[in-house]
Design a protein that fits this description.
Order of helices and strands of chain B: HHHHHHHHEEHHHHHHHHHHHHH
Shape of chain A: elongated
Oligomer: heterodimer
Strand content of chain B: under 5%
Strand content of chain A: 15-25%
Number of strands of chain A: 10
Number of strands of chain B: 2
Structural class of chain A: alpha/beta
Distance between the termini of chain A: 81 Å
Shape of chain B: globular
Number of helices of chain A: 11
Helix content of chain B: over 70%
């Protein structure tokens, strides 16, 4: 008799819990596909406390570095459980360029981006003690020397494409020197090993007293550098930036996706969070799943063309 | 020298109950993480970064800095007792530490590592206080061509690392360099040698390689040679050794200073760290020694060289981090993130505007370096006793389990465990053929540095009519070229010297 009651109770409990179990009910793992301390990591760490408050569960940040993000993203599309408890930081144009280049275990279309929350526009910067003060100086310097070297993060990357585009649009002989990250390119500039950097706004903010930004690759001027002209103002049609967001494994349910989308939207609407991000040089972006998919679809042909143009160079 | 005045202020700020408690916690956590094969100082600091989220900037840095310092030291325990470097910074400690343990001098080796770590750690931090701003500018002179030659110079170190057979040492180094080319190219991003296996995109990780190449052959040996059951009995603690060892270590001032300076300088250079420093320091010790042939047989000088240098790296790495905002070592990259999270921007202004944070931090890590000695000895003693008590039938599976956990934890990736096991079997076969794990891991560490320097150097060199000229056009390059040539022919020079002196060694 006792046994039967117990069984019945257990069955009841299971049924109830099946219906009652709402996402999320246990810690969510937020995978960063790069080394700790970078732009993706810093953003995730800033988001963490807000996400925990909104979702009501602990957010555990882990790192899966390797292959410029490819190791993590391959896992995202092939091995991760589509239950919403493992989410991955993703980057554009990385997830478009890596499959173009080949040899990685994922396709651009397989990355189910839920939200792009920030971007970092490319900027052209020289050392603070450089004789180059303006973009005109830069052009003259390049013509006089016959060649300029610009360091940047990765290849192919937003930095490398911006450099190649700049060379093409100005007709200048510019050599791009790729580094393993935006941070590692900085000593090369400060030590005078490269003439300048094609880097991100975040770096320009971090090293404000050591670098001089001479042009920004945005549609409009950035509040952080109000005196610096955009490339477009200088007559060069160059807009280039890196986006960062999160993605879930293929097959994740709509409910879970909406939940996560809403959580990241709410974080992005928090004035405290926005202020911290902007102070560090990030641009807040709000692309939900549908908008993110549209953005990627728009960028694919653009980067495909750039990729083909730069092949063999 | 203003730094020393500020330091007094730093100490005053440090001795707050909460900060001291955090320092103690950092030391304990660091020791355990360091001693576990596969869990490196880098992972330890990354793992505990979120914990510091709720702390003040100086509390957070004191905790992470203490953890870092103690982890590098704690790595010596498994290097000595299990022939497995606890962190990549302890690779060289296996060369003499483990033979010492085999001879029943495991406790002496642990004591030697302890006092060397104390010396190196303090040296690095004091040098940081005195020379930080000056050295930061010098470090910037290091560009891609210099890193290329630094890498080449690092490879020539093999000639003094490989005892007996230099050729096999270099072949081993080459195997390591080849392994390092698997996966995405460090410059350019091309995917190479993955044979369309997605798991290989990330390349051969250093931690799985370390654990596989060093630890697995030892486990296989354990199982195959059951008769050598007594092996670990010899790691037992001998009483009354502490003071004796302290005196004998401190008598070796020349060795201590040499290793400290090497460690500090390598720490200052952005991108290099304890993993290179301990091997260079070891090889320098061999080169400077009057009896180089004794290295590798279990002499304290070998342990002194590696354990002094790797802790001196800590202070060295803080130099570019704090003054330029450029991380000197992989751990510093995470500390950089910690600083940013706290709203602090590393750089010269950090010293002036937030001197309280910088000096409380350095004061805290100095105290941590002292404190880790008694805690470390108690811990090392317990570990040595524990290992001797475990029967072989349990030790082998326990160690195997630890290696698997360690490799998995690198990036929560099961493929790293497979990689570790495959490399372990490979390492066992190679060792039987006379190829040691040391040169192979050195090749794995240096391969990307050489490749990156070469490609970036050639790109920068486009300014010259012949791009490769850049590798010969700079004075710092020549320093490494001369050093490399000298090191390459060191075994030949040594042999001549021995013949001349009528030495009968070997």
């Amino acid at each position: 008799m006792k046994g039967r009651v117990l069984v019945a109770l257990l069955v009841l409990l299971t049924v109830v819990s099946l219906f009652a179990e709402k996402f999320p009910s246990k810690p969510i793992t937020y995978v960063i596909c790069f080394a700790p301390g970078g732009e993706s990591d810093i953003t995730a760490r800033l988001q963490q406390p807000y996400l925990e408050k909104i979702l009501g569960v602990p957010i555990v940040i882990t790192y899966k570095e390797g292959g410029g993000g490819a190791v993590g993203w391959t896992e995202l599309v092939s091995r991760a459980k589509p239950d919403g408890y493992t989410i991955y930081g993703t980057n554009l144009p990385h997830t478009i360029l890596q499959p173009l280049q080949g040899g990685v275990g994922y396709k651009t279309e397989q990355i189910n981006n839920i939200y792009f929350f920030q971007s970092t526009p490319c900027v052209l910067a020289v050392s603070a003690d450089s004789p180059i003060k303006t973009f005109q100086d830069f052009v003259e310097y390049a013509k006089k020397k016959g060649i300029v070297t610009l360091g940047g993060s990765g290849q192919p990357s937003a930095n490398s494409f911006a450099t190649v585009r700049l060379a093409k649009l100005t007709g200048l002989n510019i050599t791009y020197v790729p580094f393993s990250g935006s941070g590692t390119a900085v000593p090369a500039l400060l030590g005078g090993h490269v003439d300048g950097l094609m880097t991100y706004t975040t770096m320009a903010v971090q090293y404000k007293d050591k670098m001089r930004v001479i042009a920004v690759a945005t549609e409009e001027r950035i509040p952080l550098f109000p005196d610096v002209p955009t490339f477009r103002e200088l007559g060069i049609d160059l807009v280039e930036k890196a986006y960062r967001g999160i993605a879930v494994p293929p097959g994740t349910s709509e409910d879970v996706k909406r939940m996560l989308e809403e959580a990241f939207r709410q974080v992005n609407n928090n004035p405290e969070f926005v202020a911290k991000m902007q102070e560090m040089g990030f641009v807040i972006e709000n692309y939900d799943e549908a908008a993110a998919a549209k953005l990627v679809a728009e960028l694919i042909p653009y980067y495909k063309q750039l990729w083909e143009e730069t092949q063999g160079k | 020298m203003a730094g020393l005045q500020y330091l007094a202020y730093g100490f005053a700020h440090f001795f707050v109950f909460k900060t001291v408690l955090l320092m103690l916690g950092g030391v304990c956590v660091g020791l355990v993480i360091g001693a576990l094969p596969g869990l490196s100082a880098t992972m330890g600091v990354a793992l505990f970064l979120p914990v510091t989220y709720w702390l003040s900037p100086s509390e957070s840095l004191v905790f992470l800095g203490s953890l870092y310092m103690a982890a590098i030291y704690g790595g010596s325990f498994s290097a000595i007792l299990l022939r497995t470097p606890g962190t990549p910074s302890n690779i060289g400690t296996t060369f003499d530490g483990y033979p010492m343990a085999k001879q029943g001098r495991g406790w002496e080796a642990i004591l030697t590592a302890t006092f060397s770590s104390l010396y190196g750690g303090l040296f690095g931090l004091i040098m940081f206080l005195i020379f930080a701003p000056m050295l930061a500018r010098v470090a910037l002179k290091f560009g891609p061509p210099e890193y290329f030659w630094l890498g080449i110079f690092g490879l020539t170190v093999i000639s003094s690392l490989s005892r007996g057979n230099t050729l096999k040492g270099f072949i081993g180094g080459l195997i390591g360099v080849l392994l390092s080319t698997v996966g995405v190219a460090p410059v350019g991003g091309n995917v190479r040698f993955t044979f369309n296996i997605p798991e290989l995109i990330g390349g051969v990780g250093l931690i799985p390689a370390l654990v596989g190449l060093f630890c697995i052959p030892e486990v296989i040996d354990m199982v195959l040679n059951r008769s050598k059951k007594q092996l670990y009995q010899e790691a037992r603690v001998q009483e009354g050794m502490i003071w004796k060892t302290f005196v004998s270590v401190m008598k070796k001032q020349v060795d201590l200073l040499r290793a400290s300076i090497i460690g500090f300088i390598i720490g200052v250079l952005p991108g290099a760290g304890g993993n290179i420093a301990n091997l260079v320091a070891y090889s320098e010790a061999v080169r400077a020694s009057k009896h180089p042939e004794k290295f590798g047989t279990g002499i304290p000088e070998g342990v002194i060289a590696t354990e002094t240098s790797n802790n001196a790296v800590v202070g060295g790495g803080f130099v570019p981090l704090m003054t330029l905002g450029v991380p000197g070592t992989p751990v510093d990259a995470i500390l950089y993130g910690a600083l940013l999270m706290q709203g602090l921007r590393p750089g010269a202004e950090l010293f002036t505007r937030r001197a309280d944070v910088v000096y409380t931090f350095i004061a805290g890590v100095i105290v941590a370096t002292f404190v880790m000695v008694p805690i470390g000895l108690a811990f090392g003693r317990a570990m040595a006793k524990f290992i001797t008590k475990i029967p072989l039938s349990l030790l082998a599976p326990t160690v195997l389990f630890l290696t698997m956990v360690g490799s998995y934890c690198v990036s929560n990736n099961i493929s790293d465990v497979y990689m570790m096991l495959i490399l372990g079997v490979l390492g066992f076969v190679l060792r039987k053929l006379g190829f040691e794990a040391g040169p192979i891991t050195l090749g794995l560490i240096l391969g990307p540095i050489i490749e990156t320097g070469l490609v970036q150097g050639l790109l920068i060199g486009r300014k010259f009519a012949r791009p490769w000229l850049i590798f010969f056009a700079r004075p710092l390059c020549w320093v490494f070229i001369v050093l490399s040539v000298f090191f390459l022919f060191w075994p030949v020079i040594m042999k001549k010297r021995m013949i001349v002196s009528g030495g009968d060694q070997r």
